[in-house]
Amino acid sequence: IVYYGSSITQGGCASRPGLAYQSIISRQLNVDHINLGFSGNGKAEDAIVDYMATLDPLIFVSDYDHNTTSHPHLDESHRRLYEKIRAAHPDIPYIMLSKCDLDNSYDANLARREVVYESFCRARASGDKNVYYIDGASIFRGPYQNMCTVDSCHPNDLGFALMADAITAELERAFTQNLI
Q1: 162-172, pLDDT tens digit by residue?
Q2: 94 beta partners
Q3: Shortest CA distance to 11 belongs to which of 41, 42, 40, 35?
Q4: Average pLDDT of the chain to the nearest whole number
Q5: Radius of gyration of the chain (CA)
Q6: Facing residues of 132 across strands?
Q7: C-alpha dist (Å) from residue 54 to 35, 46, 60
Q8: What is the DSSP letter of 18?
């Protein structure tokens, strides 16, 4: 599984590398992963997108909207990232994840979530049945909502465990649908 994103994807603020969400998922599903999380720099620049298109993933997970500079930049880059990965790998499951820390800068994050969701809807409308969306806003909801991050943005170990649970559920769905 190839994961692309920000410092959250990188695993920043996990108490040890094995508690980043990708490591948890890899142990749960017994599958290797490549973590392309770039602290402050997950902006879907052409060079990294072109590189990722050369990889041979089983599944691609896009989790990078934290680092884009603006709403228009996220819209353009999210579409371009999807299109390049999909052109190189038309049959793999592609998962789009929106930000988990919705409450921090609420209105701006609602707009970012909408961009990711619209990107998903465009992909589905174009006939892609192998694209999935995870609403990050739902991941930290519940009795532990205020205990999932170290700074209202970066997940701590609890936050990473909740992210792993949500992403694993969608990965299992993608695996199941691709076996049928």
Answers
A1: 999 999 999 99
A2: 60, 131
A3: 35
A4: 92
A5: 15
A6: 95
A7: 15, 13, 12
A8: G
Short-list 87, 110, 109, 85, CA closest to 95? 85
Distance, in Å, from the CA atom of 27 to the CA atom of 69, rounded to the nearest integer, reads 34
Residue type, 88: A
Residue 17's alpha-carbon distances to 10, 125, 139, 147, 156, in angstroms, are 9, 38, 21, 20, 12
The contacts of residue 71 (CB under 8 Å, 6+ apart) are: 108, 111, 112, 115
Instruction: Write phi, then psi, for 36 (nearest 5 degrees).
Output: -110, 60
What residues form DSSP beta bridges with 48?
A: none
Judge whether 150 and 130 are in contact, CB under 8 Å.
no
**Residue-by-residue DSSP string for 156-168:** -HHHHHHHHHHHH
Whether the full predicted model's pTM is greater than 0.70, yes or no, is: yes
